[in-house]
Write a structure and sequence with these properties.
Helix content: 40-55%
Largest sheet: 7 strands, mixed
Shape: globular
Radius of gyration: 28 Å
Number of strands: 7
Order of helices and strands: HEEHHEEEEEHH
Distance between the termini: 81 Å
Length: about 240
C-alpha cells in the first residue's frame, strides 16, 4: 500500500514539475522576445583628424604569372620595384591628401572637423601614437594605410589600384572607441558591405607596360581612391553617430 502511495506521489511531483516548467517557458520566451531599447548613438559634433602618415612602401604585384615562369616573375618584380620608386612623390603626397579629404568630407556630413596639429609620433613607427598625450579633448579620428599599390589578380592581366586603410574614431577624454573599421578600395573590395569601395572602372591597365607608361593616370587613380575612401569613412561615421547639431 505504501509502495503504491510513494509511486503515485512521485508521479504527481513529476507531473507538477512539468506543468510548472511548461508554464514558465512562455513567460521566459515573452521576456526574451520583447522589444529591446536600442542603445543611443554617441553624440559627436567636432572631430579632430590626426594627419595621415604616408605608407612606408608601395607594392606592385602580379598574381597572374603562370607557375614555373620564374624569370618572368623576377623580371616583373624588378620592374615593379623600379616603378614604385618612380611613384615616390605620389606615395609621400597620399597622407596629406587623405587628411585634407577626411576634413572636407566630415565637414560635408555636418561635423566641425579640422586637422590636429602637434601630434607626437615615433619616427620608426609613426602610427604608434600615444592618444593620452594628444593636444585636444575633442574626439580624434586616426586613419592609416595598410596597403597601397597596383595589383593584378590570378587569371587576370589587368592591373587595378589597391588601397586599404584602417580608421578609428575615439573619445580622447576616456579612450573609448566610437567607430572602427578597415576599408578596402579597388582590388580587395568585394561584396556590398560598406567597408568595400569599388575602384573607378576607368582605372585599369591591361599590362605592366601599359601601367608604367601612364604614371600620371596611375597618380590620378590614387587621388580617386583617397577621395572615395574619405567619403565612405565620413558617411560610415555619420551612420554610427547621432546627427551633429
Amino acid at each position: 500500500m505504501s509502495g503504491v502511495s510513494i509511486t503515485h506521489r512521485r508521479g504527481f511531483l513529476c507531473n507538477l514539475g512539468q506543468v510548472m516548467t511548461c508554464a514558465a517557458l512562455p513567460a521566459l520566451a515573452a521576456c526574451g522576445s520583447g522589444p529591446r531599447t536600442p542603445q543611443p548613438l554617441p553624440k559627436i559634433t567636432r572631430v579632430m583628424v590626426i594627419p595621415v602618415a604616408p605608407i612606408e612602401k608601395m607594392h606592385t604585384e602580379n598574381k597572374g604569372i603562370p607557375l614555373g615562369v620564374l624569370w618572368q616573375s623576377l623580371a616583373d618584380r624588378i620592374k615593379g620595384a623600379d616603378f614604385n620608386e618612380r611613384m615616390e612623390a605620389v606615395r609621400r603626397g597620399m597622407g596629406p591628401k587623405l587628411t585634407a579629404a577626411l576634413v572636407q568630407q566630415l565637414n560635408a556630413q555636418g561635423y566641425q572637423a579640422e586637422a590636429l596639429e602637434g601630434v607626437s609620433r615615433p619616427a620608426a613607427s609613426p602610427d604608434n601614437i600615444d592618444y593620452s598625450r594628444l593636444p585636444t579633448t575633442e574626439p580624434v579620428l586616426h586613419v592609416y594605410f595598410n596597403e597601397v599599390g597596383m595589383y593584378s589578380a590570378r587569371f587576370s592581366t589587368d592591373y587595378v589600384p589597391r588601397v586599404n586603410v584602417s580608421a578609428y574614431l575615439m573619445d580622447s577624454k576616456d579612450g573609448d572607441t566610437v567607430y572602427s573599421e578597415t576599408l578596402y578600395y579597388g582590388a580587395d573590395a568585394s561584396g556590398d558591405k560598406t567597408v568595400n569601395v569599388p575602384a573607378d572602372p576607368g582605372h585599369r591597365w591591361g599590362s605592366f607596360g601599359e601601367l608604367v607608361a601612364q604614371p600620371q593616370a596611375v597618380a590620378a587613380s590614387y587621388d580617386a581612391a583617397v577621395v572615395a575612401l574619405a567619403t565612405r569613412i565620413a558617411r560610415n561615421i555619420r551612420a554610427q553617430t547621432a546627427p551633429p547639431l
